[in-house]
Amino acid sequence: xxxxxxxxxxxxxxxxxxxxxxxxxxxxxxxxxxxxxxxxxxxxxxxxxxxxxxxxxxxxxxxxxxxxxxxxxxxxxxxxxxxxxxxxxxxxxxxxxxxxxxxxxxxxxxxxxxxxxxxxxxxxxxxxxxxxxxxxxxxxxxxxxxxxxxxxxxxxxxxxxxxxxxxxxxxxxxxxxxxxxxxxxxxxxxxxxxxxxxxxxxxxxxxxxxxxxxxxxxxxxxxxxxxxxxxxxxxxxxxxxxxxxxxxxxxxxxxxxxxxxxxxxxxxxxxxxxxxxxxxxxxxxxxxxxxxxxxxxxxxxxxxxxxxxxxxxxxxxxxxxxxxxxxxxxxxxxxxxxxxxxxxxxxxxxxxxxxxxxxxxxxxxxxxxxxxxxxxxxxx
Length: 380
What we know:
Layout: H1 2-5, H2 10-24, E1 34-35, E2 38-42, H3 43-52, H4 63-71, H5 84-98, H6 117-126, H7 137-145, H8 158-172, E3 182-184, E4 190-194, H9 195-204, H10 214-222, H11 235-249, H12 268-277, H13 293-301, H14 314-328, H15 347-356, H16 367-375
Antiparallel strand pairs: 1-2, 3-4
């Protein structure tokens, strides 16, 4: 216990603190434990001696005050008082430098030694450093500088959302979704909003908006396809679209025929999917079972089903090829179109049947290979 009777000096305590800082990278505090260079001493006892004026030291001090005075270590308990005027001046400077008002996590306050915006916000909230408390940095900037309060966003209107959505569509060619990121005004400048926040406000019915979603809002006011609320399909509509497709292209549609004109957002692939899903999607179900586009056209328009077409023979294919040669002066190719004398068949279909073994053929051949072997036509 001899160490506790030894007189202390400020110089000695600072030397021990410097050694601690050099060894650990941080300054000691009351709870740091034993002094590394003086095993009989500990930092709690040294703090007590500074406070009580024991062992030759003046009273009324503390380890934190000692290091703040001589080593410029921040003393979180004895911070200088602040004023609203000073905080606003720092905020104005931050906006001039960065183009944005500071937030809680904007880091260090420019022009100060070690103040941060988080510490200033905490002082405003809890009444530290001369503030009355019950305030916050966002609230202060909202009231005194008109800055947007992230916890209290301004009200929205459907008209404003639609204006932003139209600007997005003109700029990108697509309507926005909740994943479209930052919103830009028609001028191209940031609007200070995100589409995810707009969708959240609509979903929750906040910010003076009726409860809905961004997709439903655009579907209602701009005719955007809502995949979660698609219109019901009818047999009459599908057959009318198919008849129009045949008049336009001279062929019946397939699931790969692409978009359907004058049927917003519809494709033949989506129609076929709806038919196959049956009663589970869009009401597209007849006679109690799912079906397909090919089945519908086979039943109601007498189009031969590609999986139910009549069987072929090599002899028949060669007869059609000879007929084609007599009429045109050349043997058919993949792109030669329909086969005369075989309703609904094309030379492309014949080729696929030869390659894959459809319709009674053995497969592993091709139209060009067949004509080379049986008609001595050069296979290019």
